[in-house]
Design goal:
With 231 residues, this protein is an alpha/beta fold. Helix content is 34%, strand content 15%.
């Protein structure tokens, strides 16, 4: 299984590691830590040395109850960082974590390679069209609602069946829009209780039926530390 990264194929037969760089002041983990160019480059270098194949950059906090910010503010956070990293580490693959098509387009134009959309195209009706025109890989995540209200949207009858239906519909719509490289993400921690997170994790193989690469993002999430009764 491969995805096309600006004309070069990335082989996904062996799992790849994504390092997360949050450049938001209210990130649930590293908010405010990476607020200078030196700190950012040091952190990216550390992740690359540790084995990261992809650096995912986000400027809009998606933690539960996060405040909304303007497109202008999001752009001001992520575009300089993408340019900085792509210049210093030209071989590293960069993904932009955004659900806004304008941010996605400007990020790709500035050196990013992958669009990582927590809303699966539901929060910006122009996203699929932009991804198709840019012809880049697209990470399509499952979430209900928005980061502000998602934890009030956990009332599933059968979460496995509903996530399955969601991906069937969204993948079909994305392909109809002309998106070629689709990666799916079940969205651990997004509009899901701890029990629902583990229900999906314990049945992850059902997502293989879609024939798409799967992103599993569980690092530092409450489903782990609350289960371990730690911080």
């Amino acid at each position: 299984m491969t995805i096309n990264i600006k004309g070069k194929l990335m082989n996904l037969s062996v799992p790849k590691i994504m390092g997360i760089l949050n450049v938001t002041p209210d990130s649930f983990y590293d908010g405010g830590k990476y607020n200078s160019e030196k700190k950012i480059l040091n952190q990216v270098e550390k992740m690359i040395i540790s084995g990261a194949d992809i650096i995912d950059i986000g400027g809009y906090s998606s933690r539960p109850g996060a405040d909304e910010i303007s497109i202008k503010d999001e752009l001001s956070r992520v575009i300089p960082i993408i340019q900085l990293i792509s210049k210093k580490f030209p071989k590293i693959v960069i993904s932009i974590d955004t659900f806004r098509s304008q941010v996605a387009k400007e990020a790709i134009d500035s050196g990013a390679h992958i669009i990582n959309d927590i809303s699966g195209g539901n929060l910006d009706t122009d996203m699929f069209n932009i991804v198709s025109k840019l012809n880049v890989p697209y990470i399509l995540m499952h979430m209900r609602g928005t980061p502000v209200n998602m934890m009030n949207r956990t009332d599933y009858n059968n979460i496995k069946n509903e996530v399955n239906k969601y991906f069937s519909k969204r993948i079909s719509n994305a392909k109809s829009a002309g998106i070629n490289d689709i990666i799916i993400d079940p969205g651990f921690g997004f509009s899901k209780t701890r029990e629902q997170n583990y229900k999906l994790l314990n049945n992850l193989e059902f997502l293989k039926d879609f024939g798409a690469p799967i992103v599993v993002g569980v690092s530092r999430k409450s489903m782990i530390y609350k289960t371990l009764d730690t911080t």
